[in-house]
Amino acid sequence: MGNSSSRNTRTTLGFITPFIWGDIGLSFFKGAAAFSSEQDVNLICIIGQKPNDPTNNNFSANIIYDLVDARNVDGLITWASHYEEFLTTEEVIEFFAKFKNLPVITIANKIKDFPAVLMDNDDGISSLVDHLYQVHGYTKIGFVRGPEFHNSAKQRYMSYMKALERHNIPIDQRLITEPNIFHESTGVKAVKYYLDELKLVPKEDIEAIICVSDLVALGVSDELNKREIRIPFDIALVGFNNKNESRMCNPPITTIDPQLLRYGQVATDLILKHLNGIEIPNKDNYIKNHLVIRHSCGCLEPNTHCVDDLDSELSFMISDDELMAIKNHLTQIASFTTSSVSHLRIGDLVGDFINDLNDPSSNKFITTLENILNILKKSDEDISIFQLLISEKRNLMLPYLKTSKLHLRASDIWNQARVQIHLALEFSLANFNIKTNNLLFSLHATNQSLNSTYERTELLLAIERLLEDLKIPGCYISLYDENKKDYTQARLIFAYSNNKVEFVDSDGILFDSIELLPEAFKPQDRYTMILHPLYFRDMQLGFVLFEVGPLEKANYHIICSELSTALHRILIFEALKKSEAERAKLLAKLEDKNLELERKIEERTSDIQRVNEQLQIAITEANAANYAKSRFLANMSHEIRTPLNCIIGFVEILNITRNHNEQKQYLSLIIEESEKLIELINQVLDISKIESGKITLHNEPFNLNTLLESITSTYSTMARKKGLEYTLTTDDSIPTTIIGDSLRLRQVLVNLIGNAIKFTLNGSINITVEKTLESSTEITLLFKIKDTGIGIKKDRQNMIFEVFEQAENSTTRKFGGTGLGTSISKQLVQLMHGDIGLESDENIGSTFWFTAVFKKATIITRPIIQNLEDSFNTLTFPTFLNKFRVLLVEDYPTNQALALAHLKELNCYVDVAENGLVAVNKFKENPFDLILMDVQMPEMDGVEATKVIRNLSIGKKTKIIGLTANAFESDVAKYLNAGMDDVITKPFRKIPFLNKIIYWLTNETPVLNVKPSIDTNMPTFETTVDKPIDLEKLLSEFDGDYNFLYNITNKFTNNAREQLRIIEQAIETDNKDQVISVAHRIKGGALNLAADTFAELASQLETKSKIEDLDFSKNILNKLISELNTLEKYLKSNFKN
C-alpha cells in the first residue's frame, strides 16, 4: 500500500493508537480521517495496545506495530500520551526507533524531537480556576490528580498550582489528592478522601473540585449525588475534556472542550506539509481550549445586558468587521467539534438571525438551523454542539441588543432555536438507541454463530452478515503462514469489498505480511482503513483490515476479539481434523504394512539360514581382525619396549659413568632411541586419525618441482651417505603448479623413499613422476620409487599395506622402523583418490607406485600478472600490490638479500627483522599483512615468535609463512601446529616463492611459469663436472642481473668465512648448540645459492653435532673450509672481469 502499490499512488498515512473506543482517541482519528478525505490521501489506523501493559497480552497485540513500514505508509501520526504508562523514557525512544525511516507527528505528548500537536493544559486549567475564583468567588478549590506517568495529568496539576498562586489563593495540600488513574473510581475515592478521611465540610472546608478529566468528574458527581450533597450549591464541580457523558449527567458538568477533532486535523496537515517539502515552523503546536459553562459550577443562564429604554424603537446596529468576526468565531468552534463543518452554513445563521431581528415576519434563522440539524442527523454527528453555539452566539450578540424590543425578539428566536435543538437531540438519542440495539443484536447473533461453529466457511458467512448489518464496506482477514514462525508472510482467507465478498481460493493467497494485502486486492480508490491484530492470548493468528464505516467506539475492537476467539477454536479444530486424517492414513498404511510383513516373514524365513551363514563368516572375520589387532598390539608393545629398554639401560649406565666422552656417547644413543619411539607413536596416531576420519585434505596450489627438489635435497644426501645412486626423473608435460595437499603428498613420498633407502644396501634409488590421465580441470600423476634392495617375498606382498599385519615382519624389525609407513601411505593415497601397489622380487629389488588426482591451477594473467612472456623483463605486477606490508624475518644476510631481491618485484612495502624478538616488537608497533618467518634464529626462533603473534588480538588473521631448510614431515607439521599458514622449504626459487606470497596476499591462485629467454649477450661460465655452485641457474633465477649475482655470492662467501671461524671457536669451547645453529644457517644460505656440496657438508655438520661428540665435527669443518676455498676460487675465476 502507500506509494509502493501500483494500484494506488496516493500518499498513505498511518495513525498509530492503542485504542479508538474512547471519546478522545476516536475524536483524534475522526479529525485525521476527515482531513485526509478532504486532501485525497489514504489513512490506515493501526490499533495495538499499550506496550508492556501487564494487564493484557500486549506482546501479541503489539506485533502489529512491526508491520508499520515505509512500504505501506509514507508518514505516521501517533497518539503518544499512553506509551509512557508502562515504558521508561529509554524504552519509549527504543519503541519509536522502529519507525526511523518514516516522518512522525505525535499527538498529546512530546516524544524525542518529533513535531507534536499538544494540548494547552495550562490555558484550560487556568480558565477553570479563573472562572471559579472571578465569577463565583471560590478560594477553597480542591484538585483530583491523574496518573503520575501521564504528561497532560502532570501539566494540569502544575497549572492548577500556578493559577492559585497567580490569584494569591493559599495552597491547601489537603485539597490535593494523590495521583491516580483516569477512571470514575478515582473520583469516588477522592470524595471518600475529602469527606470520610479528612472530614471536610462542604461549602465551609471545600467549595469546589477541579477534576483532571471528565471521567474522574463523573465519579465525583455520582458519589456526591449518592450522599445527597447538592452540586453546585454545596460543592461546585468542573472537569476537563468535554466527554459526551459530562453534559448528560445531573447536573451537566462545566468543563474544558479541548477541540479534539482539531488535533487529528492539524497533525494530518503537518505531516502532509512535511511530505511535500514544506518546512514546519513550530515543533510544538498547541491547540487552544474552549471553556464550556454548564450548571455544575454554579452558573445558570448568562446574565442579560441592561437595556437603555424598554419602549424605544427597534434598532440593531453592527459593523461588517464585527459581524465577520462573530461568524468566524462560531465557525471555528463548530470546526473543533464536528468533522462535517465544511458542509454546514454556520455563517449563514448569523446573517439570518439579524434579518429576523429586523423583520419579525421572517423565519430564515429557524429554517436554516433546521436544515443544518437535518444534515447532522443524517451523518450521525454530535447535535449538542448547537447548544454551545446558541449560548455563545447569545453572549456575542447581547452587547448589540440596545432596546427591549430587540432583546425580546432575540429571546423569542433563541427559545425557538432551543426547541428545534431539543427535538433534534431527542431524535438523535432515539436513533442512537435504535442503532445501539441493532448493533447489540447483530453482535449477539454473530457471537452465537461464531461460538457455535467449527467450520471456517460458516465463520466467514457470519462475518459477512455482520459487516452488512454494521454497514462496514470492506474487510480483509489474513492469517500468518504457519510455515513462517517470524510472521513475515500471511495468507488472505477472506475479502469483502464494496459491500460484497470477493473470491479467495480455499488455501488462501500467500503474500508478505508487510504489504498488508496481496497486490490484486489493494484498493484503487482513496480509503480509510483500520488495521487490527488477531490473536488469542499469547498466540499470534494474523490481522484484519477494515474499510471504515460507522465509527461507533468499540465496534471494531469487539469484532476482532470475537473473531480471534473463533479463529483460534477453528484452527485448533482444523489441526485436530488434519491430525485425525493423517492418523487414519497411518493406520491404513500400517494395515498394509502388516499384510506385507506377513508375506515377507515367509520370504525372510528362508533368508535367515543364509544370514546366519553370513554372520558366521563375519564373526570369523571379526575374530581374525581381533587376532590381528592383538598381534599388532603385541608387536607395538615390543617395538615400544625396545627403545624404552635401551633408554632406561643407557640412563642407568650414564648414572654410574664418570667419563665425559662416554656420557656424551650414551646421551647420543638415548636421543636416537627416543626419536625412534616418537616416530613410532606419531605413526600410530596417524593411523588412528585416518581411521576415525579426523584427517582431511587441505587443497591449495603448490609447486610440484619445488616439493620434489626439497625432498631430493634431503634424501639424496642420505642415499649418498650409504653409497647409493639417487635419481629423480619428471615428465616435462606435467604442469609446474597443481592444486592438492602438498603436505600429505610429501608424507607419502617421504615414507616410501625412506623405506627404499632403508632396505637398500647397494645399488640405486630411482624416483619417476609421470602423467597418466588429464582433463580440462584435473590431472592424474603416477609416482614410482624403485630400489635395488632386499625385495619382498611373494606371500607378504598382499598384506604389506594392511594395518595390523606388516609390523610383525622380522625383516622390518631387522632394518629398523615399525613398518607402519606403508599402511599410512595407502590410506593417504585413497584420500587423494588414487591407488597404491608394488612389484618386487626377493633379493633383486622393489618398485612401489601410487597414483594421485590433482586439480589444475588456472594460469592467471590478469589482474595478478599481466603480459607474461618468456623473457626476464616481461614480469609486471599490478600497482595495488603496493598497499600490502610484508615483514621478512631472517637472520642470515645472504638469505635476506635473496628474499629482498625477489620481493622487490612486487612493489609492496617490505621491512626486515633479524630475529623473532625484533619481529614481535615491530609487529606490535605496526601490524603487517604477511610475515615471512625463518624458523631457526637467535634470541627468539620463528616457532616461538609465531605463537606470540597469534596470541595478540591483532595477530589472529595475519598470514605467516615459515622459511626452513628442514624438509621432514614432522618438522613441517610442527610449524603448522605453531600457527603458521604455510611453509616454504629452502632452497626457495623465485617463481614458486612469489606464487606463494601472491596467493596468501590476494587469495588468488597465480601461476608464474616463466622460462627465461636465451640472451646472446649473457656471460658464460666455466663448465666443470663438479662445479661448486650453479651460476647459470642463479643467473636465470635473478633475471639475468649479473651484478646482483656477483654481489650476493661475494656476500655469501665473506659471511660463510666468518661463520666457519665461529664454528671453529664453538668446537674449541664445546658449544654444541652454536655449532648446530650456525651450520643450519650456512646450509640454508648455500641451498638458496645452489651451492649443493657446501650445503650438504653443512647439513652433515649440523646432524653429526646433534648426536656425536664435537671432536668428530672437526673433520667436517675442515671439509667445509676446503669447499669454501674451492667456491671462492671458482667465483673469482668467473667474475674476473
Can you describe what's shown?
With 1137 residues, the chain is an alpha/beta fold. The protein contains 31 helices and 29 strands. The radius of gyration is 50 Å and the shape is elongated. It holds the Pfam family HisKA. Its EC number is 2.7.13.3. It comes from Natranaerovirga pectinivora. GO terms for molecular function: ATP binding; DNA binding; phosphorelay sensor kinase activity.
Summarize the structure.
49% of the residues lie in helices and 15% in strands.
Q: What are the main properties of this structure?
A:
1137 residues; alpha/beta; Rossmann fold; 8 domains; seven-stranded mixed β-sheet; elongated
**Overall 3D geometry?**
elongated
CATH superfamily of the largest domain: Histidine kinase-like ATPase, C-terminal domain
What percentage of the residues does DSSP assign to strands (E)? Answer: 5-15%
Compute the number of helices: 31
Task: Give the count of structural domains.
Answer: 8
Weakly predicted, low-confidence segments: 301-314, 859-874, 1009-1016
Q: How many E strands?
A: 29
Sequence-ordered SSE layout with sheet pairings:
Blueprint: E1 12-17, H1 23-38, E2 42-47, H2 58-62, E3 75-79, H3 89-97, E4 104-107, E5 116-119, H4 121-135, E6 141-144, H5 151-166, H6 184-197, E7 208-211, H7 214-226, E8 236-238, E9 255-257, H8 260-275, E10 284-287, E11 290-292, H9 320-337, H10 346-358, H11 364-378, H12 385-397, H13 404-452, H14 456-470, E12 474-480, E13 489-497, E14 500-502, E15 509-512, E16 528-536, E17 539-547, H15 555-656, H16 660-691, E18 700-703, H17 704-721, E19 725-730, E20 737-740, H18 742-758, E21 764-774, E22 778-787, H19 794-797, H20 810-814, H21 821-831, E23 836-841, E24 845-856, E25 885-889, H22 893-903, E26 909-913, H23 916-925, E27 930-934, H24 942-951, E28 959-964, H25 969-977, E29 982-985, H26 990-1002, H27 1031-1037, H28 1042-1068, H29 1072-1088, H30 1092-1107, H31 1113-1134
Parallel strand pairs: 1-2, 1-3, 2-16, 3-4, 4-5, 5-10, 6-7, 7-8, 19-21, 25-26, 25-27, 27-28, 28-29
Antiparallel strand pairs: 9-11, 12-13, 12-17, 13-14, 13-15, 16-17, 18-20, 20-24, 21-22, 22-24, 23-24
Helix pairs in contact: 1-8, 4-5, 6-7, 9-10, 9-12, 10-11, 11-13, 12-13, 13-14, 13-15, 15-16, 16-21, 17-18, 18-21, 22-28, 23-24, 28-29, 28-31, 29-30, 30-31
Keywords: ATP-binding, Cell membrane, Coiled coil, DNA-binding, Kinase, Membrane, Nucleotide-binding, Phosphoprotein, Transcription, Transcription regulation, Transferase, Transmembrane, Transmembrane helix, Two-component regulatory system
Enzyme class: transferase
Domain Histidine kinase: 635-856
